[in-house]
Design brief:
The protein has four helices and six strands, in the order H-E-E-H-E-E-E-H-H-E. By secondary structure, it is an alpha+beta fold. The chain has one domain: Beta Polymerase, domain 2, CATH 3.30.460. The protein has a six-stranded mixed sheet. The protein starts with a helix and ends in a 6-residue tail after the last strand. The relative contact order is 0.23.
């Protein structure tokens, strides 16, 4: 559990560092076997989405965490980073509104994170 919290903190700090839009962290451990946490955020454009994803991968990689898989990077409309216990979703603004994952995972517990900056 300690590694999961560390991974979550590093990922959220990496997103905050690159000015991610409205980061949502949802504890889904009691309602899903997919992961313990679902992170949802967005970027303003393709370059911003790429910068967010690149920063998360770099920071988590330096800490010794590697993604199981990464999907959607080329199109940068919805990039999914699967770290096993944590799934990170980085959306374009339009796609985030369209898919509305916060509504889909509303039965989870929304984690109140204080920004580091």
């Amino acid at each position: 559990m300690k590694d999961i919290k560390k991974m979550l903190d590093i990922a959220c700090e990496a997103l905050e560092e690159k000015k991610a839009d409205d980061i949502s962290v949802i504890d889904i451990s009691k309602i899903s076997v997919l992961a313990d946490y679902y992170v949802i955020t967005g970027g303003d454009n393709v370059n911003h989405v790429h910068a967010l994803v690149d920063n998360v991968e770099e920071k988590l990689g330096r800490a010794g965490f590697s993604p199981r898989s990464t999907e959607g990077y080329r199109e940068a409309k919805w990039v999914l980073l699967d770290y096993g216990d944590i799934i990170i979703n980085v959306f374009s603004k339009e796609d985030r509104r369209f898919y509305d994952l916060e509504r889909i995972w509303k039965d989870g517990v929304f984690v109140d994170r204080k920004p580091t900056s």
